[in-house]
Specification:
This protein is an alpha/beta fold and 249 residues long. The chain has helices at 72-79, 85-94, 114-117, 160-163, 167-171, 187-201, 218-230, and strands at residues 2-10, 30-33, 36-39, 60-68, 106-107, 123-124, 127-128, 133-134, 152-157, 176-180, 205-211, 236-241.
Amino acid sequence: MKTLRKIIEIDEALCNGCGKCVPSCAEGAIQIIDGKARLVAERYCDGLGACLGECPQGALRIVERVADDFDEEAAHRHLSSPMPAETKGAIQGAALGCGCPSTLVQEFGPQKDACARANQPVNFGSLRSALTHWPVQIRLVPPAAPFLKGADLLVAADCTAFSYPAFHMDLLPGKVLLIGCPKFDNAHEYVERFIEIFKKARIKSLTTVIMEVPCCSSMLGILNKAMEGAGVSIPLKKIVVSARGELLD
């Protein structure tokens, strides 16, 4: 069934086939075909635009047009099919030295090879990273990322980790981290992203860490609006950090 909705549009004249957009699409809607990024099928694209920030050529944009409805089940079946060799080769070519694109979803567990070990939490004397996954930017994390399922989610304004010295020790253990700036980033995009996360991931609890400055408080409103849009109620705790790095709430 076709309907008027948001969907990705790819400018073939600008696209150079680098493949950087492919890993950021959790539904596998984009593949490299004949040297260009192509929308495989309209029903695979959820229209959220997770791929937008990954294109160095500016070839991707979200448009509103009549298109097939997004079919989540069809997208999941599509993801289980083999990736075309051209798409796989483009992704590998766009990867870093260890073969890890910046948006590649990772969960940190026991690893054997040296490249994978570099992604594990690192000990610095008595300090240890409590981060359990990658990526962490709200705009980059796919709503269907496996580490979000049933998670205790910590949504932090990005300044908080620099201001509060014990962030990893006191706030992060046992939680899945997402970070962003409610002042400079697009609040509407955040709401839409969290709506999809809340619908798909069955989040167990929410904690938001914000700075004491007034503009930072909008993160709380973003999460509440997203819960309303998703039709869910999730326990939400607010923690406020002062500019001097002290916990206020």
